[in-house]
Amino acid sequence: LFKNIQYPGYEVYDDIVTSYKLFHEATKLAYSPVRKYCLVEEKNNDYNDHDCVKKIKGCLEMLDFMEKNYPQLVNKCKVKICYEAIDLFKKVNSTRYKKQMYEYIKLYRNYAIKDNKLSLSKKYQVFETLLGFNFDTVWKVVPGKTPILKSFEK
Known about the structure:
The protein is mainly alpha-helical. Helices cover 51% and strands 5% of the residues. α2 packs antiparallel against α3, α3 (74-91) packs antiparallel against α4 and α4 packs across α5 (120-131).
């Protein structure tokens, strides 16, 4: 399988740009209900802007591949790009990259909204972008008071 496929040489998100190619090249696939692969992401994990760009580029490469080889999966890839862009928007620091992520969100969010398999919490985040809410916000809850939406934008 690895004759024509190589991991890209960086540790962050290398599975995104490799796994689907391995499935494509495989002549046999087996299924086991036992979970053997799991990504554990620590809350204090620092993502730099460059890592986030690698992730979205990997998703875009996957979309291009699916358009050529599996057109029935194209909409699912667009949903993934939308949700990944929302997640990355929250992680990147650069205004330039935030704008880039928001462009991907706008481009693909309708696919996410129409996806019946997307979880309610993910759909809510997509709807926030559609309604123009600042999805880089949190609810500040003070005991005995009404929750206030607090923005961290300057």
